[in-house]
């Protein structure tokens, strides 16, 4: 294991940012810290980097006890949400910074900078100032700067959070491919579940300062530990005391199966190939259901119709933590 | 992997467009406001100052030449420059340190310290002078006799003049640097740290270059204020001709002795230094700054 975090606690005044966090981050993988804003994931990342001090607990990086090591001795690369570019230096100088601090020879620095700028596709911008770059370019430069010192861990704090949707999507695909090339242990913080599911090898779900679940994207999606993880990774609705995805509910126009819940279609919205229903059950629950346009038409569903709902066999369900109106 | 990224090359630099100021609609109000501002500045600043210049050169360069031939005035000018130099150096070192303390650290009494730093601006320079005499006066000051015992005269001597000038100009540097430091934020420093830079390397290579222009403006303001300081210096200097008389004191003395030509000429020289500072900064500062 590359990074071992154990028993970490951190408070800001009365606010508990981290509450007894224990995580192991595997070597050479791309791990996402996923969770809602203010959930403590950035704090955890900054404590690993040494930019923030934990109240109690310990951090080990590559077998080295790092809890009390200052940031500059941890050999981690850190990429900030707002890039933190050195505004008064050219792109090449930015990337060279860590190498110059390490007193590498001029030729060595120049060669390494060239190589990294090629890696992040910024070779032709080497002599520009960061203010002449777009957001996506600046973030790639920041990434090259962090990689220059050959860090044992690369930490990215919401790296694409400040970029517009299109660039964000491009960059995360690019990050995935970059990681496949350079294999450095990488942790990135995100609140975007799609980003985490698409890019990460492993996801750590963090909420209210606690680790809710650790696993691969498939594990989390197919076997969520609880209602929170399930709802954070995708849309969730509640049917008869269980949380279930809206597309995992079968709709019938007659009571075919035992245990089917009766209700009336309260609203019906069509978006492209999809039809979204809100069904008001006899118990007073509002259930969201998603089905294809074709399926809805074949059933002849319209607003006000009476339907019977069952959870599809094999669907992911977890016990609902929400107080059920039926119960 | 290049396919998604090639268009970056063709994309126009995004900054140019955003740097252009927004189009301003010109209405009658715009012109009235402009007229008011121009008239105000003209009658309060430009016209009186220009009169100093015209009076100085009423009979050619003679008055300036006469000024530079008077050894006492040359000594006074030298003293002013000497005092201003030390005031700038001290205030720069202290100002940078104090600004870092105020922006980067939290400590009890920070608000009080912050308020205290504005005191030199709000208190009359005469009061500053008197306070320094009370504290450091050679015969009956609070600390003065002790220092005098060690052979260090403060009041009625150059150190006193430097202290008074430094005191009066103290907030200027800090008030220039603090907003710059606040705007720059700490992320660049943290990035440098995570790249292995020590505190000193971080300060020298990241912090200092980022606040460079704040320091330059601070130096210009401090220099101008120090050269022009009158009240506090008058109290602590003793005004000894050829020894502790600064250029501003010369202006007053010449004026009161009806040697108005010399007074105007000295005043003109003082004003020119300030104008020169502002012009130099305007020329050398980068275009995308301020």
Model description:
The complex is a heterodimer of chains A (327) and B (290). With 327 residues, chain A is an alpha+beta fold. Chain A folds into 2 domains: 3-228, 3-Layer(aba) Sandwich (Rossmann fold); 236-319, RNA polymerase II/Efflux pump adaptor protein, barrel-sandwich hybrid domain (OB fold (Dihydrolipoamide Acetyltransferase, E2P)), CATH 2.40.50. Chain A has 9 helices and 18 strands. In chain A, the strands form 4 sheets. Chain A has a 6-stranded mixed beta sheet, sandwiched between helices. The longest helix of chain A is centred in the middle third of the chain and has 18 residues, at 165-182. The mean pLDDT of chain A is 90. Chain B has a single domain (48-284), classed as MetI-like fold. Chain B has helices at 7-10, 14-19, 28-56, 62-69, 71-104, 110-117, 119-122, 125-136, 144-149, 158-184, 187-194, 199-210, 212-228, 231-237, 247-256, 260-284. The two termini of chain B are 40 Å apart. Classes of the chains: A alpha+beta (327), B mainly alpha (290). The interface between A and B is medium-sized, with 41 and 28 residues.
Computed Rg of chain B: 24 Å
Low-confidence parts of chain A lasting 5 or more residues at pLDDT below 50? none
The strand order across the widest sheet of chain A is: 6-7-8-3-9-10
**Content of β-strand of chain A:** 25-35%
How many structural units, i.e. domains of chain A? Answer: 2
The level-1 CATH class of chain B: Mainly Alpha
Q: Tell me, what's the shape of chain B?
A: globular
State the major sheet of chain A: 6 strands, mixed
Report the largest inter-chain contact: A-B, 41 and 28 residues
């Amino acid at each position: 294991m590359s990074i071992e975090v154990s028993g970490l606690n951190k408070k800001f005044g009365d606010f508990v940012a981290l509450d007894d966090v224990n995580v192991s981050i595997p070597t050479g993988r791309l791990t996402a810290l996923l969770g809602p804003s203010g959930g403590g994931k950035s704090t955890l990342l900054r404590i690993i980097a040494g930019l923030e001090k934990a109240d109690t607990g310990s951090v080990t990086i590559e077998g080295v006890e790092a809890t009390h090591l200052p940031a500059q001795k941890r050999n981690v690369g850190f990429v900030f949400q707002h890039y933190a570019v050195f505004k008064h230096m050219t792109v090449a100088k930015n990337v060279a910074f860590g190498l110059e601090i390490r007193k590498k020879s001029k030729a060595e620095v120049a060669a390494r900078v060239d190589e990294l700028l090629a890696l992040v596709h910024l070779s032709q911008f080497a002599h520009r100032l960061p203010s002449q770059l777009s957001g996506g370019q600046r973030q790639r430069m920041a990434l090259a700067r962090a990689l220059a010192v050959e860090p044992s861990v690369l930490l990215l704090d919401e790296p694409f959070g400040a970029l517009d949707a299109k660039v964000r999507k491009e960059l995360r695909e690019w990050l995935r491919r970059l990681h496949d090339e350079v294999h450095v242990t990488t942790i990135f913080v995100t609140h975007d579940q799609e980003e985490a599911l698409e890019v990460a090898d492993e996801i750590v779900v963090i909420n209210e300062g606690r680790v809710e679940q650790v696993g691969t994207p498939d594990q989390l999606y197919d076997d969520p530990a609880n209602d929170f993880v399930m709802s954070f990774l995708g849309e969730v609705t509640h049917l008869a005391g269980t949380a279930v995805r809206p597309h995992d509910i079968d709709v019938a126009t007659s009571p075919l199966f035992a245990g089917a819940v009766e209700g009336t279609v309260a609203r019906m919205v069509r978006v492209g190939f999809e039809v979204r229903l809100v069904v008001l059950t006899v118990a007073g629950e509002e259930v969201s259901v998603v089905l294809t346009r074709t399926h809805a038409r074949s059933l002849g569903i319209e607003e006000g119709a009476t339907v019977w709902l069952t959870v599809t066999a094999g669907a992911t369900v977890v016990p609902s933590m929400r107080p059920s109106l039926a119960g | 992997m290049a396919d998604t990224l090639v268009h970056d090359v063709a994309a126009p630099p995004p900054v140019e467009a955003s740097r252009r100021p927004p189009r301003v609609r010109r209405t009658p109000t715009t012109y009235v406001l402009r007229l008011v501002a121009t008239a105000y500045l003209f009658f309060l600043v430009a016209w009186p100052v220009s009169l100093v210049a015209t009076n100085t050169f009423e009979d050619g360069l003679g008055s300036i030449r006469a000024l530079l031939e008077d050894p006492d005035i040359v000594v006074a000018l030298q003293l002013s420059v000497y005092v201003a130099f030390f005031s700038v150096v001290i205030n720069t070192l202290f100002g940078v340190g104090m600004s870092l303390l105020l922006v980067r650290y939290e400590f009890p009494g920070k608000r009080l310290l912050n308020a205290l730093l504005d005191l030199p601006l709000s208190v009359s320079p005469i009061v500053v002078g008197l306070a320094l005499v009370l504290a450091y006066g050679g015969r009956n000051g609070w600390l003065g006799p002790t220092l005098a015992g060690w052979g260090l005269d403060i009041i009625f001597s150059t150190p006193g003049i430097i202290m008074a000038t430094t005191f009066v100009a103290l907030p200027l540097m800090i008030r220039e640097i603090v907003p710059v430091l606040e705007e720059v934020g700490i992320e660049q420093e943290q990035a440098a740290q995570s790249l292995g830079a020590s505190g000193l390397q971080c300060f020298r290579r990241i912090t200092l270059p980022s606040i460079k222009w704040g320091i330059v403006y601070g130096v210009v303001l401090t220099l101008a204020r120090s050269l022009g300081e009158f009240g506090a210096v008058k109290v602590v200097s003793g005004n000894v001709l050829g020894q502790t008389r600064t250029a501003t004191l010369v202006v007053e003395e010449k004026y009161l002795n009806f040697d108005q030509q010399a007074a105007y000429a000295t005043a003109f020289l003082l004003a020119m230094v300030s104008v020169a500072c502002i012009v130099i900064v305007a020329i050398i500062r980068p275009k995308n700054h301020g």
